[in-house]
Amino acid sequence: MNWIDNFVRPKIRSFLNKRETPENLWVKDPESGEMVFYRDLEANQWVVPNSGHHMKIKAVDRLKTFLDDGAYETIAIPPVAQDPLKFRDQKRYVDRLKEARTKTGQDDSVIVAFGKLYGRDITVSVQDFDFMGGSLGMAAGQGIITALETAANRKTPLVLFAASGGARMQEGILSLMQLPRTTVAVLRLREAGLPFIVVLTNPTTGGVTASYAMLGDVHIAEPGALICFAGPRVIEQTIREKLPKGFQRSEYLYEHGMVDMVVHRHNLRSTIGSLVGLLTKSEPIEELTTTAPSTRLAIREAAVAAEGDAAGEDDLGVPPQAAHAE
């Protein structure tokens, strides 16, 4: 019996409970096909070290890397009606919501937080693409409005990290009504004289692009982000023509004046910190006095495009490139 208990049974268990290597230890770079260890990606804010490709980052990780010491206060979002249309496709809408909440640990696709950026109070809102593609429904719309109202009430700038596939079809017209609701809230923040900075991440499309995501005082895009209303595939099928390379990507939109600057994820914190100081006329922070030349150039070009001024006396008759749309 001892031989069976001590040798045979453990051997059988080892075959039945054979450990397998987790599938998520390595992540494939969509651009180069390189396999990257996920801990290296996590330490690098989910930017592929060699190619520089910006992968999607979780909303909580975004807040921790953006705010001072990763500390923030989560702002409660008022509850809204769940599944008012009793929608069902292949699954019931309530079941899809349960799955998304289990997957992300969030109530919906928008998180609102209050914290500090280089010692200054700031309100931050992040859209989580993992929650049903960051789609805009009543709860997400209420989250954006809560962020705007929190910034207005606490007299702080608002930074919005947008990532969405557009309006949430399961809520129909109620989803589309979030476009005017959020627009009115943006106007109230503007009347209060507080900065609204939008960071467009990959992807930002549909009704989100058609509303609050394009109503900021400054629009920053991450490299390679898809920013559009209708996607390139839909446009190609409609006009039956091949679109230019990089069409609707952040670099293309910057060249055509749709965004003010394209900033690497590692530089977002310092860039936005400098912008907040400029827009609020705050005392300069020594840590931010050394700014990367590329960032300075982008800010200057954005200012020139906004003012409609020329870069020099020799270019008086030529409009700035960033302001010219073909």
Describe the structure using short key phrases:
326 residues, alpha/beta, 2-enoyl-CoA Hydratase, Chain A, domain 1, 2 domains, 7-stranded mixed sheet, two-stranded antiparallel ribbon, 12 helices, 9 strands, 14% strand, globular, disordered C terminus, AcCoA_carboxyl_beta, EC 2.1.3.15, Acetyl_CoA_COase_Trfase_b_su, lipid metabolism, transferase
Structure description:
Acetyl-CoA carboxylase is a heterohexamer composed of biotin carboxyl carrier protein (AccB), biotin carboxylase (AccC) and two subunits each of ACCase subunit alpha (AccA) and ACCase subunit beta (AccD). It is an enzyme of class 2 (transferase). Its main location: cytoplasm. Residues 306-326 are annotated as: Disordered. Belongs to the AccD/PCCB family. There is one protein chain. The chain has 326 residues and is of the alpha/beta class. It folds into two domains: 21-55, no CATH class; 57-309 and 318-323, Alpha-Beta Complex (2-enoyl-CoA Hydratase, Chain A, domain 1), CATH 3.90.226. The protein is built from twelve helices and nine strands. The protein has helices spanning 2-16, 38-43, 59-66, 93-104, 138-154, 172-176, 178-191, 206-209, 232-239, 250-255, 268-280, 293-307; strands spanning 26-28, 35-37, 72-74, 110-117, 120-127, 158-164, 196-204, 218-221, 261-262. Strands 3-4-5-6-7-8-9 form a seven-stranded mixed β-sheet, with helices on both faces. Strand 4 and strand 5 form a beta hairpin. Helix 5 packs parallel to helix 7 (178-191). It is globular and about 80 Å long. The N and C termini lie far apart (84 Å). The relative contact order is 0.09. Residues 292-297 and 302-326 have low confidence and may be disordered.
